UniProtKB/TrEMBL annotation:
<dbReference type="InterPro" id="IPR035107">
    <property type="entry name" value="tRNA_thiolation_TtcA_Ctu1"/>
</dbReference>
<dbReference type="GO" id="GO:0005524">
    <property type="term" value="F:ATP binding"/>
</dbReference>
<dbReference type="GO" id="GO:0016740">
    <property type="term" value="F:transferase activity"/>
</dbReference>
<dbReference type="InterPro" id="IPR014729">
    <property type="entry name" value="Rossmann-like_a/b/a_fold"/>
</dbReference>
<dbReference type="Pfam" id="PF01171">
    <property type="entry name" value="ATP_bind_3"/>
</dbReference>
<keyword id="KW-0067">ATP-binding</keyword>
<feature type="domain" description="tRNA(Ile)-lysidine/2-thiocytidine synthase N-terminal">
    <location>
        <begin position="24"/>
        <end position="187"/>
    </location>
</feature>
<protein>
    <submittedName>
        <fullName>ATP-binding protein</fullName>
    </submittedName>
</protein>
<dbReference type="InterPro" id="IPR011063">
    <property type="entry name" value="TilS/TtcA_N"/>
</dbReference>
<keyword id="KW-0808">Transferase</keyword>
<keyword id="KW-0547">Nucleotide-binding</keyword>
<dbReference type="GO" id="GO:0008033">
    <property type="term" value="P:tRNA processing"/>
</dbReference>
Length: 241
């Protein structure tokens, strides 16, 4: 956990993510990333000398086979309160709306439900477990599907929700998280979504893997490019086309 906590501390210090008195809701999906984030923030409470409150929120999409008992036992073992929010998002997205590309609407509704619950629990910050590989994949998807260079920020104030979103794992790579989860034997709750692993994000992940196999270090270079925005050499926004 030394590497995990070191990267978390660096992100916290660099982006001023956590302050004394914060009440933080962690988005707990049951996947390896969020399960490790909850554990890391739990440990960080002890070593960072910052008095902040920690709780977890799980949004149950309503597929009917979500192993929330695994997450409940895990959170109980850490002494972190877990709030499981049951919804009918899956029914709306797949049965009522019959979305051909359901991920966007599902994500929007899931985040909306999460933030609403977090505010109900008087949280002023939310923490998601997005890591460095997520940064790269989001940038690639933005280029491919939106025609722009864009990725998420390590820290964002969401004015509509009046809550600050932080991503303490942005300096970590997915391989670091997977290794830590395996070593610590952290339990995982399988994603019940029927189209998991067949999404645009998974396709972007495969493209990055392929590029990295051809040119080792590509993924690291892409992440470094995001970190050093002052080196960009793009066309002047004042030009008219």
């Amino acid at each position: 956990m030394r590497k995990i906590l070191g990267a978390l501390r660096r992100a916290d210090e660099h982006f001023s993510m956590i302050a004394p008195g914060d009440r933080i809701a962690v988005g707990l999906s049951g996947g390896k990333d969020s399960m490790l984030l909850l554990y890391a923030l739990h440990l960080y409470q002890k070593y960072a000398k910052k008095d902040y409150a920690l709780l977890a929120v799980t949004v149950d999409l309503g597929f009917g086979n979500y192993a929330t008992d695994v997450m409940q036992a895990y959170a109980d073992g850490l002494g972190v309160p877990l709030h499981i929010l049951k919804t009918n998002i899956s029914e709306i997205v797949f049965d009522i709306r019959k979305e051909k590309n359901p991920c966007s609407l599902c994500a929007k509704m899931r985040k909306g439900a999460f933030y609403e619950k977090a505010k109900e629990l008087l949280c002023i910050k939310a923490a998601f477990a997005h890591h460095g590989d997520d940064v790269i994949e989001t940038l690639l998807m933005s280029l491919m599907y939106e025609g722009r260079m864009n990725t998420f920020s390590p820290k964002s104030y969401l004015s509509r929700r009046d809550i600050t979103l932080v991503r303490p794992f942005v300096f970590l790579r997915e391989r670091d998280i997977a290794s830590a989860v395996n070593r610590l034997d952290i339990p995982i709750a399988k994603n019940p979504c029927p189209i998991d692993f067949s999404t645009k994000r998974e396709q972007a992940k495969e493209i990055v893997r392929y590029l990295n196999s051809l040119y080792p270090g590509t993924a690291d270079n892409m992440l470094n490019a995001v970190k050093t925005a002052d080196t960009y050499n793009l066309w002047n926004k004042d030009w008219n086309f």
